[in-house]
Amino acid sequence: MGAMLQEFLAIAVLALVLLMVVVLLLTILAHLRTATPYGGTPQAVGMAMVHLARLEDGQRVCDIGAGDGRLLIAAKRACSKIQAVGFENALGVWLVGKLRILWSGQKVRLLLRDARKFNFSRADAVFLYVGPEMMRSLLPKFDRELKKGARVVSHSFRFPGRKPVKVEEVSTGKKVKKVYLYRW
To answer: Which site from 26, 63, 136, 161 is most exposed, i.e. has the minimal number of CB atoms within 10 Å?
Structure first.
């Protein structure tokens, strides 16, 4: 019986390691596909983004490149009656985000999907932490879909050819990050 248990445990450990390798590879491929590496939003930057968005009860908030869900959680804590949904296409990061949301107790949705396939016509505010290529690809989509007055708050990256309504510099200790507010 001891030998069978050892064999079972060895197979289970091997299966877990293989699963972790697959998740890691899928995560890397997702980041390569969107040319946006994962980098968590520092707390001070997240708070500045939530503040700039001026969230109100009943509004729908979307986070593109939601990563581990920390910005969705912060937005929900700041305004508990919003509907918050995030998009992450990297499996490993999405799994971490699902766990973080579960532990936070906040009612937010984190979807494992490409945000470019979502219709943003009902969004009141959109958070972004994506690279320049993704910003460029989102611009015509936002022009078609976002309602008048919708707010888009971007961490570090600007829309090409579009002037932000406001730019805030946020100290993260070692660096100063910029947060851009746009109105549609």
So the answer is: 161
Give the start-to-end residue ranges of the domains of the chain.
Answer: 43-183
Gap between the Cα atoms of 129 and 138, Å rounded: 12
Distance, in Å, from the CA atom of 160 to the CA atom of 135, rounded to the nearest integer, reads: 8
Is the pTM here over 0.85, yes or no?
Answer: no
Find the distance separating the first CA and the last CA of the chain, reported in whole Å: 67
Q: How far apart are CA 154 and CA 160, in angstroms?
A: 12
Strand partners, 166: 181
| Tokens found for residue 132 | 């320049």
Output the pLDDT for position 144: 96
With a cut of 70, list the residues of the chain below it in pLDDT: 1, 5-39
The CATH class that applies to domain 43-183 reads: alpha beta
